[in-house]
Amino acid sequence: MVLNSLLPHSLWEHFEKITQIPRPSGKEGKMVEHIARIAEENGLSFKTDAFRNILVSKPATKGRESSPRILLQAHTDMVCEKNQEVDFDFSTQPIQTEIEGDWVKAKGTTLGADDGIGVAMMLNILTSKDLEHGPIDCLFTSDEEVGMTGAIHLDSEILRAKKMINLDSEEEGAITIGCSGGTDIYINIPLELESVGEGNYCFSLSVSGGMGGHSGGDIHLGRSNANKLIVNFLHLLEEEMRVRLVDFAGGSARNAIPRYSSIKAIIPFEQKEKVRTLLNIYTSEVEKKFAEIDPKITFSLESEDIPSQCITEELSK
Questions:
Q1: Per-residue pLDDT at 182
Q2: What is the pLDDT of residue 172?
């Protein structure tokens, strides 16, 4: 075990086991089975539902039966982000943990401490034999990272406590009384394609290396957004030449700031060198703007084979 030197041992043992269970949003079934198995091994009652929520109850210790019932809550899914060069399947592979100084990290991927550490804390409480406490309910909800489906569909009738402590926070020793919100916007635009024609040049441009982060918890830090960086450059090109898109892809999760984005585009052949000149100027401006906040942003420009079709100029805008 990588984390067996950390204290308290029982907490980090639970957390490391959690990192070995794939649990992307919507696929928390194995995690629910793990929690249910722990409950059974410790003689604790539990309830599950069709939305992969699980509620485990632990009776009060002797002499604390009259204490108010407390509900603890955490979510079992995690943000699934990886570095561009990393080949990793969050649906099947365990997280590779490592210790770097005072931090527990993952190799090339998100760690899943949001909210794996909250889940580990609850499991540690449920399995503790020496902790004095009143009656405790531990609620593990699903799908928090992409819409809180579990919490939304939870049958509130199963909840008996009048007070709840949510264990999905960012700072130790801090109590959070509010949080950021989000809105989903779905846009469907029919593609209009046309023939590329003669006398054109095709290039691909990618941006990577940004710090990214959580779109709620880190959005105020001024970090780069790869999609915005590449679209801003497209606007510069459109002021100088005709640009038609072939492909545009960026971002990988609705709650993560995009760290990687790429386009493939068609321009007149005689403008080929001007693209690189403009990119060099733009890169310098970006590096200056993010020098202190997000210093590892990288642009890559490559020539590509010319396809037979591309998106129309009007729609490309």
A1: 76
A2: 80
Give the active site residue among 13, 77, 143, 294.
Answer: 77
pLDDT of res. 84: 84
Q: What pLDDT score was predicted for residue 177?
A: 79
Q: What stretch of H or E contains 249?
A: strand 244-250
- For the segment 227-245, the average pLDDT, to the nearest whole number, is 97
Domain range list for the chain: 9-166, 193-316
Between CA 182 and CA 168 the distance in angstroms is: 17
> For the whole model, what pTM was predicted?
0.66
Architecture of domain 9-166: 3-Layer(aba) Sandwich (3.40)
Helix (H) or strand (E) holding 46: strand 45-48
Active site residue 168: no
Q: Is CATH 3.30.70.360 what the domain over 193-316 is classified as, yes or no?
A: yes
Question: What is the total residue count of the chain?
Answer: 317
Q: Which two tokens stand for residue 234?
A: 């497209």
Active site includes 144?
yes
At residue 36, the pLDDT reads: 98
Examine residue 115 and say whether the peptide bond preceding it is cis (omega within 30 degrees of 0).
Answer: yes
28, 114, 115, 144: the catalytic one is 144
What CA–CA distance (Å, rounded) separates 298 from 296? Answer: 6
